[in-house]
UniProtKB/TrEMBL annotation:
Domain FUZ/MON1/HPS1 third Longin: 532-685
InterPro entries found in the cross-reference section: FUZ/MON1/HPS1_longin_1, FUZ/MON1/HPS1_longin_2, FUZ/MON1/HPS1_longin_3, HPS1
Lineage: Eukaryota, Metazoa, Chordata, Craniata, Vertebrata
Protein's UniProt name: Hermansky-Pudlak syndrome 1 protein
Ranges for domain FUZ/MON1/HPS1 second Longin: 200-366
Length: 692
């Protein structure tokens, strides 16, 4: 019983997703109220009618509600983003208000990654989310729905998405080897090729399921934020989803296929020739997930969006994504990039992020949007008010630069002509003798300018990507060569990597890993050093990376947590602990200890300087219940927390860490706290810094 939709202020459905149970429930109730002989309308129309009172009341009330629970225990969470209202519903009791609010913010994040600064204009965003062509709308909604399904699956099963931090594969030698290969061979060859069509590879990374094997950024590249990287991992997993049943290979299975006995060392088979590897490189590239949201037995013929056959996109065509870029003169959010997702083998993916030739236009658009937004705020507060002192504007300098910008765009395009007309009206009102000057009457002109600037952005990077700009990307041949190069490099390691991703860190030392890895961390046994420790999660919030023992809950494999239901019980306890600590963190608590049956849980958040010295704790700001969720994917809570804490430590680099532990309840409390201190110091000491 789940539903999530986006609606306009006029109750028009801009996007919706719901599970089969919710659809059946709503149609049964709606069908009972229909007169005999009348057919059911489209499900989208049913939703519009059903939610219209909620949408209208939310937009008209001054102090509108953000959540409520109905008599049948259905939870509704609402959040208004500009002109769009997001509504999340749960009726099976499996999700709380915090979960629904997080889902809303994740959907908003994915829409920002897909549409960029068009999200700043409500009118243009409505056109993007609800295209007039039925097939285009069906394709877009199906893709957004599949992203939500993928995110939900990852959050329920993957610890990195539970705590919203990136997990690396722990094998320093192999990681270093891959990074060197990406830098000196792959990226260098791609950027020197004439087939790149003006694009420049900025970032290249290899994923094994959701874990990061190697990541390389060119010298000209900005730092890729944790929020953007997590969103890209969701998109990569959506394109090439992990099959948990097929990918869950036990160490014994790999040993048997390699022909090694219990005491023998693993010897990889010789690599095939380049011709052989390139011949099979397309095996996983054409595989696309099929997400079925409609049970074929349920008759919904009226809803054309769910019965329309949709052809999958060309895998060689990149997906346009909009990511944050940091430059010397400041941050530029939602800058256009091209994302290439190349499947090496099932479960192993190469991702390339490129800078497109017209990206300078996006930076100019953002600067002018920022300028007109500041001007609009100044006009609202009165010219010469306190806002002008905080953010002074040289409007004459803006006038000169805007004239040059419009001239560079050229008068041939219709969107440029619209911008020229609105800009002329703005100048006549602001600068001419007969104009109104700089007062509140100029506010509508500022709004029109921002809308037209977003229109230019949309023309260049969204609608343009479907026409002339579509040919400007890395050629299919160049992508195939890149794919073959990485396949050849990792051929001897692919089986190991797939198993390693399932057993990245374990509470005990497996003989299987001592055969494969040259890493000194293979000898670290947490159960021997910390008796009674069941599980832990450590997160470096400064870098957005985490480390935790693997949790295996399948029936095929056995771990130190047991098999099947036992491991699943521990996993549910860990997931519940994270939810609980987030609620306490939102209320200002940085330390939580609690006992739950046979287990004792601890959570600590602390700050250190660059030399590893623990800094004095500070009162953490209390957040309201309807505030953005604590995390790093949809809303980087820790980035703002670090900024808040750094105010009292100017000139110092402040780092933030989190530690969650699960112990057996029979262990004395003083021993548990001692374990936590020792575990934190052991994980971050230079010789065992697993996150670097």
């Amino acid at each position: 019983m789940k539903c999530l939709l986006i609606a306009s202020e006029s109750a028009e459905v801009l996007f919706h997703w719901s599970d089969l149970e919710y659809r059946q429930n709503i149609q049964e109730k709606y069908g009972a109220s229909q007169e005999q002989g009348e057919g059911l309308p489209a499900f989208e129309d049913i939703l519009s009618t059903l939610f219209a009172p909620i949408i209208i009341s939310s937009s008209t009330l001054e102090d509108s509600y953000t959540s409520f629970t109905t008599e049948n225990n259905q939870i509704y969470v609402l959040h208004q983003f500009d002109e769009c209202l997001y509504i999340a519903v749960n009726g099976d009791g499996k999700e709380k208000e915090d979960d629904l609010r997080r889902k809303i913010y994740v959907l908003k994040k994915m829409i920002e990654v897909m549409f960029g600064m068009v999200t700043l204009s409500g009118n243009l965003l409505r056109k993007e989310l609800r295209p007039q062509e039925t097939e285009q709308r069906a394709r877009l909604w199906k893709y957004l729905q599949s992203l939500l399904e993928t995110y939900s699956l990852l959050r329920e099963n993957d610890q990195s998405f539970l705590v919203e931090a990136v997990e690396r594969l722990i094998h320093p030698q192999l990681c270093e080897l891959c990074i060197e290969f990406l830098e000196r061979r792959l990226v260098q060859q791609l950027n020197s090729s004439v087939e790149r069509a003006g694009e420049e590879v900025l970032h290249a990374f290899v994923l094994v399921h959701t874990k990061l094997l190697a990541f390389y950024s060119s010298r000209n590249a900005s730092v890729l934020t944790t929020s953007d990287l997590l969103a890209l991992i969701v998109m990569a997993q959506n394109m090439y989803p992990s099959n948990l049943d097929l990918d869950d290979t036990s160490p014994e299975d790999v040993e048997s296929t390699s022909g090694s006995g219990p005491e023998s060392f693993y010897t990889p088979e010789p690599s095939p020739s380049r011709r052989g590897s390139s011949g099979s490189e397309k095996a996983g590239q054409g595989e696309f997930p099929v997400f079925e949201f409609v049970d074929p037995e349920v008759q919904m013929a009226e809803d054309s969006l769910h019965t329309l056959e949709i052809s999958p996109p060309d895998p060689s065509s990149p997906r346009r994504v909009f990511l944050e870029v940091s430059q010397k003169d400041g941050l530029y959010p939602m800058m256009p990039h091209s994302m290439y997702c190349l499947s090496l083998w099932p479960g192993i993916t190469l991702v390339l992020l490129t800078k497109i030739p017209t990206s300078a236009v996006a930076m100019s658009v953002y600067k002018y949007l920022e300028d007109f937004d500041k001007l609009e705020k100044r006009l609202h507060e009165g010219h010469g008010g306190p806002a002008s002192a905080r953010s002074p504007l040289n409007i004459y300098d803006i006038r000169t630069k805007m004239d040059k910008f419009i001239k560079a765009l050229g008068p041939s395009e219709l969107q440029s002509a619209y911008l020229q007309n609105v800009w002329t009206e703005f100048k006549n009102r602001a600068f001419s003798k007969g104009g109104s000057g700089f007062n509140k009457e100029l506010i509508p002109c500022c709004k029109n300018m921002k809308t037209q600037l977003c229109g230019i952005y949309r023309r260049y990077f969204l609608t343009g990507s479907e026409s002339a700009d579509a040919a400007q990307h890395l050629s299919a041949g160049l992508q195939e060569r890149a794919q073959a190069m990485v396949q050849e490099k990792l051929m001897d390691w692919k089986d190991f990597l797939l198993v390693k991703s399932k057993r990245n860190i374990t509470m005990v030392s497996y003989p299987f890993f001592s055969k494969y890895t040259l890493s000194p961390q293979a000898d670290l046994t947490y159960l021997e050093d910390f008796p009674g420790l069941v599980h832990f999660i450590c997160v470096d919030r400064s870098t957005g990376q985490m480390i935790a023992p693997s949790l295996s809950i399948t029936e095929r494999t056995t771990s130190e947590l047991g098999k099947g239901p036992v491991a699943n019980y521990i996993k549910n306890k860990v997931w519940a602990l994270v939810r609980t600590t987030r609620r306490y963190l939102q209320k200002g608590y940085s330390t939580v200890t609690l006992r739950d049956g046979d287990f004792y849980f601890c959570y600590f958040l602390w700050f250190e300087n660059e030399s590893g010295y623990k800094l004095q704790p500070l009162d953490i700001p209390v957040q309201p219940d309807d505030s953005p969720p604590v995390g790093m994917l949809a809303y980087d809570y820790y980035k703002r927390l670090l900024r808040y804490y750094s105010k009292n430590h100017k000139g110092e680099t402040v780092k933030c860490y989190e530690l969650l532990t699960v112990h057996l309840g029979v262990i004395p409390t003083e021993i548990i706290l001692q374990h936590c201190r020792q575990l934190a110091s052991k994980l971050w000491e230079p010789s065992r810094n697993l996150l670097l």
